[in-house]
Amino acid sequence: MVFGRHSRGVDSADHLYVRSAAAAWLADRGEQATFEYTRTEGAPIGSLVDVRWRHGALRVHLDRAVMPVWDNGVEPVLGTRVPVDRDTLIRHWYVHRIRLNSVGTARHVQIGTEAFARPIEWFALDQCEMMERGLSTPAVEEIVQARTAPRPSLWSPGKARKVPEPEARAQALMRRLVYARRIESVPVVKQVCADLENLTGVDEELQEQLRAAVRHAGIWLAEQNKERRKLFDNLTRAVTQQEPGRVRRLLTRVNATASADRTDTESAVYRRATTYFESLDDRTRDAVEAEADTEREAQRAAARVRSALQRLREYDTYTPDVRPQVEELLRSAASAGELLPPGEARRVEVWKTRAARGPREQLRVARRYWIRRSCPRCDAQQGKDCVLVEGPSSGKPRKDGHNERLQLELDDRKRARQQKKAGKTWRLLPSRYSVPRRGTSVKPASLVPPRSGSRTTPGRAMRRRQPRRRQSGGTTRCHATTGIE
Q1: pLDDT recorded at residue 440
Q2: 119 Cβ partners below 8 Å, 6+ apart?
Q3: Which residues contact 445 (CB under 8 A, 6 or more apart)?
Q4: What angle do CA 321, 326, 328 make, to 5 degrees?
Q5: Of 438, 483, 484, nearest in space to 464 by CA
Q6: Is the N or C terminus of the chain more exposed, i.e. has fewer CB atoms within 10 Å?
Q7: DSSP readout, 394-420?
Q8: 19 vs 17: CA distance, rounded Å
Q9: d(CA 309, CA 326)
């Protein structure tokens, strides 16, 4: 087979880099591999890389030209743009991803592990190993250990039962139903409902609870079917109106939420959409991929906004301590745009208004002083801590007292100092002077002449006359008594 490049883009030779890296990685482990660039269903060369060796095989999907096949003995490794639905993640526990990073003029391979409700964790190829269950990364070891660890028993130790009691099985199915609805997995909800309907041996009260759970699940399934029909209708409309960006977004949603149990009509809509998208020219597809990158960045920004708002729940004032967090919140909110829910958008606007006014320093007063006062902002009474007055944590205790409450204490201290200073100034006047009546004046103490018989004006010190010295002929004569030399 001839190995070559099908185009001249940055990633046009990724299949060659994958072959080289995989060969070196397997050779370090004593394995000799064979490679084949399979062209299944008319996919361009380089879309698929089949790696086979004596004890295993991998199929690397570098793009989404060919959808992966599961449970056929060959483990798929998916590129970053290949979609995978949540049911597959739940059923297989995890899937592997592959990406190539440009370092100078070379491309370095990294393997990622993706699991449901967990972010993708990336590792260098040297950190990966081939185990009996297939390709393994440090993240796989954690996932498998968490899944296979024995759970603590909910009852006292005793003789183990091979078949659980009907009540215990009913409770387990109810928990599974709640989890399936939370992750919006329609096939799991249908399966659990069927198991609950076929369950026997429970008392009448529990049976009524199970019937109610199945009834509510049926209402939820009807709503999901309505949303599913709306999804395929929107996909049909997007293809008809030739909106490639919208087609891409809807195809991603279809792969994530409606990949199983498609009707003939739904399958026809899906094939028409994929055919349209694959027929786009390179320039249009590049523009769509750029738009997808922007959307992914907006989604990451929205996640950062949620994290920042979570950290700011304990604050209702813009202080210098939270300034870096608020600045990061506002930057992320600008990138997230319309992806923010209305509630989060309102909280962002509150912080934006606070930031426009500038940070306020938190006043420093010992708690034993300000706790004796009531707070004019949160209406906390004497002896009670201040509480948050805004945001989702409104009513919860605040870390420090509000500045308005502390300012009352500082104002009283300032008035006390002023009164004390005024009292000291008044005592400087001689005791023989009384307070002047209105319309009269009093002379300063330094200008009041002394009374007759007084030795000196108060405040003046007597200066003793020092003798003068005169040096004559090497000797000095001094008249100490008269001061005359």
Answers
A1: 52
A2: none
A3: 428, 429, 430, 433, 458, 459
A4: 120
A5: 483
A6: N
A7: TTSBPSS--HHHHHHHHHHHHHHHHHH
A8: 5
A9: 9
Q: Report H helices in 95-203.
A: 138-148, 166-182, 186-197
Strand 56-61 and strand 75-79: the pairing is parallel
Task: State yes or no: pLDDT of 158 exceeds 50.
Answer: no
pLDDT at 236: 92
Looking at residues 390-415, what average pLDDT do you find?
Answer: 82
What SS3 class is residue 433?
coil
Q: Which DSSP letter does residue 6 get?
A: S
Phi/psi region, residue 477 (left: phi>0; alpha: psi -120 to 50; beta: rest), is beta
Residue 387 is given by DSSP the state B
Residue 56: its H or E element: strand 56-61
Question: Residue 51 forms beta bridges with which residues?
Answer: 35, 58
Measured distance between the N- and C-terminal CA atoms of the chain, rounded to whole angstroms: 130
- Determine the Cα–Cα distance for residues 301 and 259; give it in Å rounded to an integer: 28
**In sequence order, what are the residues at sequence separation of 6 or more whose Cβ sits closer than 8 angstroms to the Cβ of residue 77?**
58, 59, 60, 61, 96, 97, 98, 111, 135
By DSSP bridging, strand 95-103 and strand 470-472 are: unpaired
Q: Grade residue 234 by pLDDT with cuts at 50, 70 and 90.
A: very high
For residues 41 and 112, give the distance between their C-alpha atoms in angstroms, rounded to a whole number.
Answer: 27
Let me know if 411 is exposed, middle or buried by CB neighbors in 10 A (0-12, 13-18, 19+).
exposed
Which strand (E) or helix (H) includes residue 248?
helix 244-257
Q: Give the C-alpha separation, 111 to 14, whole Å.
A: 14
Lowest-pLDDT range, 14-18, 108-112, 293-297, 427-431? 427-431
Q: Considering the entire predicted model, what is its pTM?
A: 0.40
Average pLDDT in the chain: 77
pLDDT at 389: 77
Side-chain half-sphere CA neighbours of 265 within 13 A: 7
Tell the residue number behind the tokens 């991929």, with chain if given.
289
Could you count the other beta carbons within 10 Å of the beta carbon of residue 352? 15
- Of residues 120, 116, 63, the one with CA closest to residue 87: 116
* Cα separation, 416 vs 458, whole angstroms: 32
Closest CA to 92 of 128, 135, 130, 60: 135
DSSP 316-376: SS--GGGHHHHHHHHHHHHHHGGGS-HHHHHHHHHHHHHHHH---PPP---HHHHTTS--T
CB atoms under 10 Å from CB of 35, counted, come to 19
